Amino acid sequence: MQDQGTADHLAQLGPILYACAAHVIEGSFEKTDICLRQIKRLASIVDGPLQRLSLITADSLARRLLCPIQGFAGALIHPSDYFEQPILQTARCNHAELSPYISTGFVTINRAILEAVEDEKVTVYKIQVVHIIDLSCSTSHPRQWLNLLHDFHGRKGGPPEVRLTVVHDDKDFLATMRRLLSEEADMLNIPFQFNSVIGRLETLEFRNLRDTLNVKYGEAIAISCSLQMHRLLAVDDNLSYSGIGQLQKMANIARLKQMASSGYSPVSTLSPQCQTPKLLASFLNAIRALKPNIMLVMEQDADHNALLFCDRFVEALNYYAALFDSFHAVAAGNPRRADERTRVERMILGEEIKNILVCEGVHRHERHERLRQWATHMDRSGFEHVPLSFDAIRKARQNLMSFGLDERNGKVESDCLLLINSAPKPEETTMDIFPEDTVSSATSSPASSLYTPSPHGYGSWVQELSHDQQGVQLIGLLYQCAAEVGAGAFDRANHSLEQITQLASLDAPHTLQRLAAVFADALARKLLNRVPGLSRALLSTANSPESHLIPAARRHMFDMLPFMKLAYLTTNHAIMEAMEGERFVHVVDLSGEASNPVQWIALFHAFRARRGGPPHLRITAVNESKEFLADMAGVLARDAEALDIPFQFAAVEARLDDLDPDALRHVLRVRSGEALAISVVAQLHRLLAADDASRRHVPGSSCLTPVQIMARSSPSSFGELLERELNTRLQLSPDTSSVISSLSPQSPVVQQQQQRPAAAKLGSFLQEVRALSPKIMVVAEPEANHNAAAFMERFEEALNYYASLFDCLERASSSSSPAAGQGRWRAERARVERLVLREEVCGVVAREGAERKERHERLAQWGRRMEAAGMEKVGMSYGGMMEARKLLQSLGWGGYDVVHDARGEAFFFCWHRKPLYSVSAWRPAACRHGRLAGA
């Protein structure tokens, strides 16, 4: 139950969303920013369907505002760019299973098919052939046709021969569907044939539809098309919109503002005539030519094809609010269903919302229309309406009741079934259609021509460049863009991003192109961070339904690159040397997300083989994932028992940077009488994150509001307006939430603050570690200077460093064999690049203050920090280096090497002689008092 205060806050979300949409239409960057901040704040109060819908809607509004700025719009990576086909297909199946409307639609369609073909008699000499054509594509689900097979099996007079043709763009899905249905048909003794057509409805060649769908004369034909036909309504209506002129734009804004203040929906300002686009007309003519017994159409009953954005926004917000409520109710109280609901909301419904609100022209394919509009399209194309039978409607209502809904959720209108939520808001429409007796010749308009993006202005010069020339061009553009971003030059940065996105892509075959796409996204976010509301409204990887794949991506990285294996091996070797002769050993694993039980299983074996037998071993692991810690405890306990090693495991559910240094002894359960070893891999840099909250207000700075900035400027373009906003050095009072703040990098105050010690937390932590008196502390860190105060220095260092890591991944994925293995490795490489390295690049380049966690430093810098905290270096032995080199040699990793540092006390892990990671060992310095590490 929500308290009244929470309910009152949530009641504000609707009006703020309407106001935000109005400001997006105005092109008001600052007013949109204010609204987006408010939406983010209100939506974070408590989790619920309206809050989740608001966050997705806010992301779409932010992206629509950026659409005219093509460089930024093209550079920003959306979570949908990470969707993998198997998980996307799982989300589609979840959608069909969780939605009472889709499930009920399938039941109704099956019943109508049975009734339409029941007059086709089975004779002694010839068995009836029923050919079902499933054009539902991504909505298609095997369960619908499994149920129909059972219905045919129970039919009086016996089942017919069934031919099923399915159109879908996923070859693996079609193969699975073929297997399931063929096995079921064999079990039911039904003659069955499955035909697969790889593609989408809008890409079919309508001129040859009979051949494509393998339709034979003499068959009874039933066509089912669920939630797909609206995609054939896509037209290039950008020109139409621009022709409406400024008056319609003003009406657009006025309507949304009226809704923001009054909460009701006035009549649309623009009601275009219902016209059947050429692509849809060609498709329907081709269907008529097949002379089907029946055609079943299920569509979303909503007007998302309105020309004006305000009409679409209002309709979409109301429609998807009902859908989100429905899915929330179905999944309530079931954690597994809750995960499925989240996947559907983000991967299916969220993508529909983004397409409706962000896209225009031929790219806007989610053009849902109401039943009366579909009836007009079908009537014009020579189809006549067939009423649903009483039995079909009865079975549909029974199916709704199985979801906890009642018969009021199924409403009959014009002899069609409208499936509605508890509020009288239609969700889906199912209708039966027979073609009229008159048949006209089918015509075709190739769909591919409609869905090919229009050539960009940069296309010609891109095509003229060779691969090497494109690489040189990309590097130059990235440096140029970074310089413009650092200077706050919005228009020039946008121009650079436009050119980069013409050359770069996450899916490009060449490493540098993929790297450039990742850095372009980070640079765009870096500049947008100056407008916090807009920046935070954009959904990130953490918001992606594939965020649960990040641990899997880290495992792929462990498999593909040797660095973590080398870190674990050399750390264990150093621990073994330090613990020689010790009978009670306590190892503290502070590696967090870089932790892996493999490291400690190897240590078990090393201890078991040592002279004198293994010690009593205790491992304490710090990790924020409870599931990971539980799995780690089970794995290590089993291996320790198998090796007869006395063993205890302690779990600390936290992140390293959340630990309280003052309570370290208690939290880590450090006991006297045990020899302590500490291992921290690729995590210590997180303690360098400085909390810049205190820097947000500078006494005596200007307090101009964005409204005042706009009043003083009369820009000729939206880009100029934003550039003026970003280039105006503001600083506002901390309690002024509607203000965008920034400080000049050249400001003496900023320079003074950048020179202050930024590692107080690290210094405190290291002092407390020293107080624990560990025999050894082994630190593995990326060997790069990503903690520089100057942005360009960080950018240049990051570009060179991650270029090497991308090269390493490319080498690993391309050297695998055979071809099937290569495909798997390339998929895993893409997952690492997108979910792990891209997030690190964003952390280095785009974030600041406490949010910038990826603050990697070089070994020399770590040495100064450790020594300032009262630690002294322990030399890493030559034996450890030789073991590491043997590992590289045994695994066939050419190009990698392990070398000592200049003083012969630490190791560097190199790729083609470039150090990428360092490992060093430390212990408390004798007779020294620790002091805080310097900046």
UniProtKB/TrEMBL annotation:
Keyword Glycoprotein: no
Sequence motif VHIID, residues: 130-134, 585-589
Annotated segments matching region SAW: 358-434, 846-923
Transmembrane intervals: none
Keyword terms of this UniProt record: Transcription, Transcription regulation
Domain of life of the source: Eukaryota
Keyword Lyase listed: no
Family to which the UniProt record says this protein belongs: Belongs to the GRAS family.
Protein name, as recorded: Scarecrow-like protein 3
Organism: Digitaria exilis
